[in-house]
């Protein structure tokens, strides 16, 4: 260990060191250009590719107390926001190291806790000036005159009758209930001259069509340019580039996500700039994730078209599910109305029999097993008789139950059963033999979506079924790829269940690399939740490092202003009067430690995105902007000006530098600030826990002992 940590080790601050070591593994996961990691399971020798803090934490040895706390913190952030975990993990490590340095300088624990807490609170208040409302984001996109050919892609011609059809979006597969026409995803991506016979959109032409798609009702501003044949609107003129950093039901979890977000897509909006809507907002939040962004744009378009009749708009996460198909190229990823899921080959034979036929559907809100009882069920306290041959008796009872359940399904002419939980294998086999398709492990949101359009009513037990519970109108077919071919992926077969007008959408995610499948799905959901939280907050942060740079500037400014204990105004940043004397002596050291976390954050992202060749070069660039911000007199004004110019911490070697112009990128407000708070709260908790151990009644004995660190940190 370095010399600076020897005394710290002697004082047994093991928890902070463990946090620092665990967080170090996640440095490459920061920023838009993440370096993926292969995780190998020693028991199976199977590997998987991870690119998120959540998957990393799941793969690390977290047997220590500090590791358990770290895992709980990361999981809490993931459960609530689904974004911000990499930032959280990095800041935990950076601030752990910073506090260890403070301890090396004999800074009291009480001063570290109070000054850091108040410093972060002050930062959160200061960066509010970098928040921008969703309405203003749309206005800025409009006033900046965005050009549709954002990625310099070649596009196919689009007929005027297709302007408001979400199926023209690059990753949207048409509903086969409508007149049949397959939309290839990459129909023109490999051609120099695009001369298509059909009205198609290339995979990179979504920006042009989103403007017309979400324009106010009755707006006739849409036009088609004869040169490139790309749909444009009257406020759609500037080219977009794409980089996150430094560059040009019953109430289930997240049931609140079904709330309406009025105005962003609504035809009632009086502002013409609202035509950009959620599609363009998704672009600014995509942080370099182009594939997921195009899928999300198609989803937004479909949901908007469904809502047009009611005059309101919504972005409903509960109506989005994913299906991961291994073995197909990523270019086959697209969005389908209805449910796409995987079934066994035996079930697929039933589907071939049902293809193109309307089915009677039953929804089960529980397990379809003999032993299943609903939550809260009180079992009778009867005495169970033990027979001489219980196995024979139980076998007869099981057969009786199977026959009874099958008779119920046949009597009500049920063809399709969607089950929320598990399905008895024996019953599944009997249903297949009688041409009844049973699909288990279906979410409650999926059941709700099918119930809305088929009039089926969920039941807990098959014995509750009556004629009113059975819905109609569903159709089942083998899933077909964008080129029209049905797919058999070996052990499991993808199928599609569809109903006309169903609100449910399935994002089919494909790849030929098994270890990459989880990564693609995680990235998709991260973007979906970024958009949701932006709408829920009704505001976003300026992205590209703007917020972190202002935090760094603000903390350094506070550190340079010495406190006077006798002057109440001098300590107004710190609301604990009893700490005034200690803060006078240690305030600058502790605040500099807090600031070092932001500086390391910016430096690592610059290195990860190849904007700086080394950490030293990255720190020099950050210091350069800090000096210019200080010379300006108003750091926030300087940062806002540089952000609008696209020059904030910008380098020429970024992944999208060849596009020249800058795309405004934004971050979630609540998710980001909560990641900061959770990171500091965890570090300070571990610090105080360590301090309690080494300052107890046996302090001297503990400090001089060679007891294992696992017993020192409880």
UniProtKB/TrEMBL annotation:
* Signal peptide limits: none
Q: Which residues form a coiled coil?
A: none
Q: Which molecular-function annotations from GO does this UniProt entry contain? A: ATP binding
A Gene Ontology biological process noted in the UniProt record is:
chaperone-mediated protein complex assembly
What SUPFAM superfamilies would the database entry show?
A: GroEL apical domain-like, GroEL equatorial domain-like
Matching entries from InterPro entries are given as: BBS12 (IPR042984), GroEL-like_apical_dom_sf (IPR027409), GROEL-like_equatorial_sf (IPR027413), TCP-1-like_intermed_sf (IPR027410)
**Family annotation (PANTHER family):** BARDET-BIEDL SYNDROME 12 PROTEIN (PTHR46883:SF1)
Its protein name is Bardet-Biedl syndrome 12 protein
Native organism: Eudyptes chrysocome (Western rockhopper penguin)
């Amino acid at each position: 260990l370095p010399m600076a940590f020897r005394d710290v080790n002697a004082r047994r601050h093991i928890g902070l060191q463990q946090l620092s070591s665990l967080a170090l593994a996640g440095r490459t996961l920061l920023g838009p250009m993440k370096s993926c990691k292969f995780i190998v399971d020693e028991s199976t020798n199977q590997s998987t590719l991870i690119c998120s803090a959540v998957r990393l934490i799941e793969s690390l040895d977290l047997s220590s107390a500090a590791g358990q706390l770290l895992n709980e913190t990361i999981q809490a952030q993931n459960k609530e926001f689904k974004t911000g975990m990499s930032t959280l993990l990095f800041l935990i490590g950076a601030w752990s190291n910073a506090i260890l340095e403070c301890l090396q300088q004999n800074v009291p624990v009480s001063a570290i806790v109070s000054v850091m807490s108040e410093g972060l609170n002050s930062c959160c208040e200061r960066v509010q000036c970098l928040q921008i409302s969703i309405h203003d984001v749309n206005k800025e996109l409009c006033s900046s005159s965005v050009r549709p050919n954002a990625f310099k892609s070649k596009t196919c011609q689009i007929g005027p009758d297709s302007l408001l059809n979400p199926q023209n979006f690059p990753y949207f597969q048409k509903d086969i209930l409508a007149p049949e026409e397959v939309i290839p995803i990459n129909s023109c991506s490999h051609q120099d001259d695009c001369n298509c016979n059909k009205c198609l959109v290339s995979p990179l032409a979504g920006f042009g069509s989103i403007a017309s798609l979400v324009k106010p009702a009755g707006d006739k501003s849409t036009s088609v340019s004869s040169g490139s044949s790309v749909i444009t609107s009257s406020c759609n003129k500037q080219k977009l580039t794409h980089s996150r950093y430094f560059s040009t039901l019953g109430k289930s979890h997240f049931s609140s996500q079904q709330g309406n977000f009025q105005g962003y897509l609504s035809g009632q909006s009086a502002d013409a700039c609202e035509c950009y809507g959620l599609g363009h907002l998704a672009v600014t939040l995509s942080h370099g994730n182009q594939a997921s962004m195009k899928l999300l744009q198609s989803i937004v378009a479909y949901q908007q078209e469904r809502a047009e009749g009611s005059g309101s708009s919504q972005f409903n996460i509960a109506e989005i599910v994913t299906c991961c198909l291994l073995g197909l190229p990523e270019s086959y990823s697209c969005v389908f109305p209805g449910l796409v899921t995987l079934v066994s080959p035996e079930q697929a034979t039933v589907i071939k029999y049902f293809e193109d036929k309307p089915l009677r559907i039953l929804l089960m809100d529980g397990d379809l097993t003999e032993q299943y009882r609903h939550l809260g069920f009180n079992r009778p306290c009867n005495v169970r008789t033990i027979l001489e041959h219980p196995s024979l008796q139980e076998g007869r009872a099981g057969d009786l139950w199977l026959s009874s359940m099958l008779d119920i399904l046949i009597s009500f002419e049920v063809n399709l059963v969607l089950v929320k939980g598990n399905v008895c294998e024996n019953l599944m086999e009997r249903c297949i033999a009688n041409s009844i398709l049973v699909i288990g492990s279906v979410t409650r949101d999926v059941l709700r979506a099918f119930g809305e359009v088929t009039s089926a009513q969920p039941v807990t037990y098959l014995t509750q079924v009556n004629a009113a519970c059975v819905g109609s109108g569903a159709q089942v077919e083998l899933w077909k790829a964008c080129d029209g071919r049905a797919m058999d992926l070996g052990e499991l077969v993808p199928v599609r269940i569809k109903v006309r007008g169903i609100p449910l959408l399935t994002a089919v995610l494909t790849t030929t690399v098994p270890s990459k499948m989880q990564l693609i799905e995680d990235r998709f959901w991260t973007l979906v939740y970024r958009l949701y939280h932006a709408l829920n907050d009704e505001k976003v942060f300026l992205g590209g490092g703007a917020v972190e740079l202002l935090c760094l500037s603000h903390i350094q400014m506070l550190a340079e202003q010495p406190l006077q204990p006798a002057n109440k105004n001098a300590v107004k940043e710190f609301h604990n009067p009893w700490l005034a004397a200690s803060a006078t002596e240690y305030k600058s050291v502790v605040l500099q430690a807090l600031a070092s976390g932001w500086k390391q954050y910016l430096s690592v992202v610059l290195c990860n995105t190849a904007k700086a060749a080394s950490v030293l070069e990255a720190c020099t660039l950050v210091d350069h902007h800090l000096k210019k911000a200080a010379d300006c007199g108003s750091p926030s004004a300087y940062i806002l000006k540089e952000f609008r110019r696209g020059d904030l911490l910008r380098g020429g070697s970024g992944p999208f530098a060849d596009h020249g112009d800058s795309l405004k990128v934004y971050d979630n407000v609540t998710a980001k600030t909560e990641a900061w708070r959770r990171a500091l709260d965890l570090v300070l908790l571990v610090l105080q826990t360590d301090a309690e151990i080494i300052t107890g009644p046996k302090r001297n004995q503990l400090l001089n002992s060679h007891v294992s660190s696992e017993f020192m940190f409880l």
